[in-house]
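Hi L.,

As promised, Pyridoxamine 5'-phosphate oxidase:
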Amino acid sequence: MVVEMTPSAVDTLLTESGSGVLSLADGAETYAVPESFGYDGDALYFQLVYHETSRKMAFVRATEVATFTVYTDDPAESVLVRGRLERVPDADRAAASAAMADNAEIPALNVYPDTEAEDLSMAFYRLIPETVSGRELTRSDGEAD
């Protein structure tokens, strides 16, 4: 049976997970990309590495509401976070960096293996949650599966 996760369980999954899928949109066209993330209890932080012609960054700029999905298979749980994705201002970079250091699986990932590091840029972004929901699959005896 699928049940809603408690706010505490949602917070735990976000705190203990270090990666998920960031879904972006430009009109009717969508783009989803695996990303490591940091979580400070209020926002999700991403360290986005990109090239000047990055499709990902074009979608970041066009997206009005982003969705981030975190999930585990055992136990079967998932959390969806929807909200505004914004570039982290310089004054908040230390907080973003700390959140990434706390629980991101791979703080920075070179997704352009044929591109020299000096040709890449990096920026911190944060997802400000507007809605957060979590679900878990339980066995018929009420225990998490």
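The helical segments are 7-16, 55-62, 93-103.

Thanks again for sending the construct details.

K.
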